[in-house]
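In the present case, backbone shapes were mapped to integers, as reproduced here:
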Amino acid sequence: MATTKGHEEHLGHVVFITAAAAIGGFLFGYDSSVINGAVTGIQKHFGMGPGQTGFVVAIALLGSAVGAWFAGGLADRWGRTRTMQLAAALFAVSSIGQMLPFATWDLAAWRVLAGMAIGMASVLGPAYIAEVAPPAYRGRLGSFQQLAIVLGIAVSQLVNYLIAQVADGDVNNRLWGLEAWQWMLGACFVPAALYFVFASVIPESPRFLVGVGRDDKARTVLSEVEGDDIDLDARIAEIRSVLRTERRQTLRDLRGPALGLLPIVWIGIVLSVFQQLVGINVIFYYSSVLWQSVGIGQSSSLLISFSSSIINIIGTFIAIALVDKIGRKPLLLIGSAGMAISLAVASWAFSAAVEAGGRVTLPNPEGAIALVAANVFVLFFALSWGVVVWVLLGEMFPNRIRAIALSVAAAAQWLANWLITETFPLLSEWNLSMTYLGYAVFAALSFVFVTRWVRETRGRKLEEMG
């Protein structure tokens, strides 16, 4: 009984520090998707067309690519937790800046800064969680990052909806001296402050501590996260033996025979890119505009966005329950198939849109089918690619290149995200149905890629990867 209690206590501690680290993922999701509710207000306030709208929404993602690129190096130099504190500070400052813009270029600049924080969080969370989680629980604990992201998305949509309701359904109405959309963008300051506090109290990664010669502290952290029944000296020696063969990671370490990079790095990059090319973030960045474009009112479109976020959370819980039971690869294959079919159905439904009196609408049953297909797509993404890609990126690379390879893969993900986000307003204005058909094609290609090149990592120690 005492052994079971001790096991539960150490697991509870691991869950706590994992959840605390995953607040960065919450901010990632919140700050990424809060623009969904604000974009209509920004368009009207600054008089922007589709091209400008895509630019202002998507430019944060270029900042995310920069943040992801440098996060691994900063984490290796300063430590995981101190770099998390920097990301939290960037979140807080950029939230206030986005809340009080005086021009489109000013808003765009603050969104770049917010994007840098998002990119850093996208790297720091998976890396830290993978390094503190015991192998038996690493898949489920690694899923906390994606769970936090989808919770952040859902909370941002709920906050947006509530603010819009207080503003009588119009995000350009004024509340307490500002327009409603400004309060939507500024609300991120609160979770940013919480992230800073938690990043200040969670322990440093044991692998970083061993790397900087703080073995006693590393031993303490390992006993807290893996239990007292492990051979701590052996674990320290195992980590040190791996680190001894390493040096400061640089891009040169990723060089290999496959188009200049190691094959495992390309696999990580392509996984990251496919996660975005299926168009998932169109739902979370533009769904209010998307549903308004086919005849649904502003307030109702925000409520639909919130319902999609709830489905996203449900799918994430399904993934958490299955990722360590059936493995990473089967979940990816299930998700690819489900996404391809649902996106193809959505494409067909959007093709029925008609314009009458300057107003675009979707007739029945195509309108209902489009809504269901879009949410089925969100469900299949959430129970597969949404979770599994982050789990894989945190664990698939060898120790000697993990931080820098994860940074490169995450940067590629943000660039793909930027491409989709930048082009959607113009593509949807051209042909919404064909745009979704393109996303369906990428989902089908992702099935082929996983089948041929992705290896299963379930249950393997990080020191065994490579």
The first helix runs from residue 2 to 21. The chain is about 75% helix and 0% strand.
